[in-house]
């Protein structure tokens, strides 16, 4: 697997939705379906929201109130980031020339085992 990683400017562009060069396709694959892809996805999107959170500090009012605004913003951002994670992952894979249905190998094994168990249980005439 290639060890070509994006530089900080490329990574920020990638986080915002830009496509990385084909030489970084292995890095993109690992980023989106490799181990710890979910925490990376959440962190990547929180970086994009950080200017909004910083702007909340400029609002008038007590510090605890501004902190509460930031906390609410973080919770909402995490909620929506997690809710659209799968669609975002599929779109990023597609934009980088990878199959959008690509899954983590462990997750794919689990899906295959569940499908096999289902087919064995519910096949017609007990064939399986």
From TrEMBL:
Protein name: DUF5313 domain-containing protein
Transmembrane domains' residue ranges: 42-59, 65-85
Keywords annotated in UniProt: Membrane, Transmembrane, Transmembrane helix
Any single Pfam family the record assigns to this protein: DUF5313
Region (Disordered): 94-128
Key word Transmembrane present: yes
Origin superkingdom: Bacteria
Biased composition (Basic and acidic residues): 109-122
Keyword Nucleus: no
InterPro entries: DUF5313
């Amino acid at each position: 697997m290639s060890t070509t990683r994006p530089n900080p400017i490329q990574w920020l562009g990638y986080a915002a939705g830009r496509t990385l060069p084909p030489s970084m396709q292995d890095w993109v694959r690992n980023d989106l379906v490799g181990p710890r892809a979910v925490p990376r996805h959440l962190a990547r999107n929180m970086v994009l929201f950080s200017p909004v959170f910083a702007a909340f500090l400029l609002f008038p009012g007590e510090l605890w109130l501004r902190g509460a605004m930031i906390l609410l913003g973080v919770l909402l951002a995490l909620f929506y980031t997690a809710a659209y994670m799968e669609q975002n992952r599929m779109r990023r894979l597609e934009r980088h020339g990878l199959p959008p249905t690509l899954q983590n190998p462990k997750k794919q094994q689990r899906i295959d085992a569940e499908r096999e168990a289902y087919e064995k249980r519910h096949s017609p005439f007990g064939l399986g």
